[in-house]
Amino acid sequence: MTTRHHGNNGSSSDAEWRVSEDEENMEDVELAELGPLLTGSGPKPRAAGAFPDDDDDDEEEEEGQGLRVVTLPLQAHHAMEKMEEFVHKVWDGRWRVIPYQLLPDWLKDNDYLLHGHRPPMPSFRACFGSIFRIHTETGNIWSHLLGLIFFLFLGTLTMLRPNVSFMAPLQEKVVIGMFFLGAVLCLCFSWLFHTVYCHSEKVSRTFSKLDYSGIALLIMGSFVPWLYYSFYCSPQPRLIYLSVVCVLGIAAIIVAQWDRFATPRHRPTRAGVFLGLGLSGIIPTMHFTIAEGFVKATTVGQMGWFILMGAMYITGAGLYAARIPERFFPGKCDIWFQSHQIFHVLVVAAAFIHFYGISNLQEFRYGLGGGCTDDSLL
């Protein structure tokens, strides 16, 4: 900023003019920082006025002009005003999506999704209102919200079936109910996380832990009815396998509480933990197939459906870990067909296929009248 000479009488007015210009420039900078988050088309940011440094002291003394420096409390006052204005805009739902590079670090997860991100919104009302807007999380939210509604309806119908449809009504409904409980909790935690994770860093961390815990609960709940019916006449192996699955599931939930587990750097770790939990079912599957024979295992034992379910889970987890297809088409899958959305759809489809398989096993068990033979696990 150049100095101006107006004589002795003009020094005071010139200093006031400088302070006014400095305050105006500061407000412009603050607006520029919040600009991507607001819908208003405020003034374009200009370079803030430079304050005099030590090198300019001699020149100021010669010119006889003093500059009033904007104090820190005044800066804080302006910042609070702008933040209050921003919160009101978020609360009213008047926000717009921003590009990836403008996100704070705690909201940066997938750098292949270049546009359409929600800004930080410290309002639960605004977060839940965003489910009706188009952004990078729209598909993730609705895929599991609709899945949640579907499984709540399906589970209610199953639990309300008459007792005469079961050989051991209470026991079997508890077993099947464990699957529905795992599915409902997984889908519920998932859609809640994708809805509110832009609220704040603390909220994001909390709900990400619930999200990952829900995945472990779904895997554990899926094992329970399958092991119950597949090893119906072999209670000892059934108890062993159920115990192992529960221990591994609880271990996965404990690992999910680690704060760094949710960071982008540990994306392959997350996929590996849940893949490992799911693949632990290979041992009881091999046991069942060897004991019953391949033909019986794939027909009566519904092994074909369970293998399809596993393939869908593994495919979804693999796409999620590798971030395919957006890795090959950066910026083209920002809103739809990103890896996380594909993973969500495959999870819902795989869970339904699993339910179909255990329903067939339950009907087969009912058809046998609850009897067991010495050479049969079923």
From TrEMBL:
<feature type="transmembrane region" description="Helical">
    <location>
        <begin position="271"/>
        <end position="291"/>
    </location>
</feature>
<dbReference type="GO" id="GO:0038023">
    <property type="term" value="F:signaling receptor activity"/>
</dbReference>
<feature type="transmembrane region" description="Helical">
    <location>
        <begin position="303"/>
        <end position="322"/>
    </location>
</feature>
<feature type="transmembrane region" description="Helical">
    <location>
        <begin position="210"/>
        <end position="228"/>
    </location>
</feature>
<keyword id="KW-0479">Metal-binding</keyword>
<feature type="compositionally biased region" description="Acidic residues">
    <location>
        <begin position="52"/>
        <end position="64"/>
    </location>
</feature>
<feature type="region of interest" description="Disordered">
    <location>
        <begin position="1"/>
        <end position="65"/>
    </location>
</feature>
<feature type="transmembrane region" description="Helical">
    <location>
        <begin position="342"/>
        <end position="359"/>
    </location>
</feature>
<keyword id="KW-0812">Transmembrane</keyword>
<feature type="transmembrane region" description="Helical">
    <location>
        <begin position="174"/>
        <end position="198"/>
    </location>
</feature>
<dbReference type="Pfam" id="PF03006">
    <property type="entry name" value="HlyIII"/>
</dbReference>
<keyword id="KW-0472">Membrane</keyword>
<feature type="binding site">
    <location>
        <position position="194"/>
    </location>
    <ligand>
        <name>Zn(2+)</name>
    </ligand>
</feature>
<feature type="binding site">
    <location>
        <position position="344"/>
    </location>
    <ligand>
        <name>Zn(2+)</name>
    </ligand>
</feature>
<keyword id="KW-0862">Zinc</keyword>
<dbReference type="InterPro" id="IPR004254">
    <property type="entry name" value="AdipoR/HlyIII-related"/>
</dbReference>
<keyword id="KW-1133">Transmembrane helix</keyword>
<comment type="similarity">
    <text>Belongs to the ADIPOR family.</text>
</comment>
<feature type="transmembrane region" description="Helical">
    <location>
        <begin position="240"/>
        <end position="259"/>
    </location>
</feature>
<feature type="binding site">
    <location>
        <position position="340"/>
    </location>
    <ligand>
        <name>Zn(2+)</name>
    </ligand>
</feature>
<protein>
    <recommendedName>
        <fullName>Adiponectin receptor 1a</fullName>
    </recommendedName>
</protein>
<dbReference type="GO" id="GO:0005886">
    <property type="term" value="C:plasma membrane"/>
</dbReference>
<feature type="compositionally biased region" description="Acidic residues">
    <location>
        <begin position="21"/>
        <end position="31"/>
    </location>
</feature>
<feature type="transmembrane region" description="Helical">
    <location>
        <begin position="141"/>
        <end position="162"/>
    </location>
</feature>
<dbReference type="GO" id="GO:0033211">
    <property type="term" value="P:adiponectin-activated signaling pathway"/>
</dbReference>
<dbReference type="GO" id="GO:0046872">
    <property type="term" value="F:metal ion binding"/>
</dbReference>
